[in-house]
Amino acid sequence: MKIYAKTIPVCQLDENNYFVGMTTADLDPLENNGYYLIPRLCIQAEQPESKKGFIAQWTNDNWQYIEDHRGETVYCKKTGEVVAIDEPGILPATVTTMPCPDIYHQWSEKKNSWVEKADAAQLRLQDKRRSAGTLSRMQMLSQLEISLDKNKAALVAAAENAMTGIELIKIRNYILETQSFSLDNDNWWKFLTDVLHLDERQIFDLWNDAIHI
Torsion over CA of 93, 98, 102 and 104, rounded to 10 degrees? Predict the structure, then answer.
């Protein structure tokens, strides 16, 4: 009488026939012909080879090796944000494994890399202006008088000599009435650059000095 092993190794699969691991099937105690009770989602086959970056899938009675990027960090080419990979398979064409350096870059299919946006310098300046915060009336006007020897009246006179129309009205009212100055204000920035002829470095140096007044 032939003696059968009490258990045999079987391959365990998930719902999509991807290899999960090895388990065992028990010999059916009610049969005498070597019938084994194969657990659900299991197959009697050789354990697939382990390949880095791939997962084995049982297809047409054979193991097929599918790319598996689950757990990898990839980035959306459109936004630069991290994208979660939930399923095995090749990476979508919309993602890359290269992180975006910053918000001033965009993906270039031609160069297959992140490249600076055409207006990166302008965007950096806008963000720098925005993040500079505000200065009180006393801080701003005092610093302009210290740095440029221009008091409130001199600032208004400079505006009247260089500007006209609605732009002049807006900046004159800003100088005479505002209680807080902001570099994010386009009229004020234009006044500092076009009328007072300050460059970017001079403006931010002046602004930082005014913070300590």
Answer: -50
Q: Which residues of 40-67 are buried (b: 16+ CB within 10 A; e: fewer)?
A: eebeeeeebeeeeeebbbbeeeebeebe
Per-residue pLDDT of the chain (213 residues), as tens digits, is 688 899 999 999 999 999 999 999 999 988 778 899 999 999 999 999 999 999 999 999 999 999 999 999 999 999 999 999 999 999 999 999 999 999 999 999 999 999 999 999 999 999 999 999 999 999 999 999 999 999 999 999 999 999 999 999 999 999 999 999 999 999 999 999 999 999 999 999 999 999 988
Contact 210, 142 (CB under 8 A): yes
**Coil, helix or strand for 99?**
coil
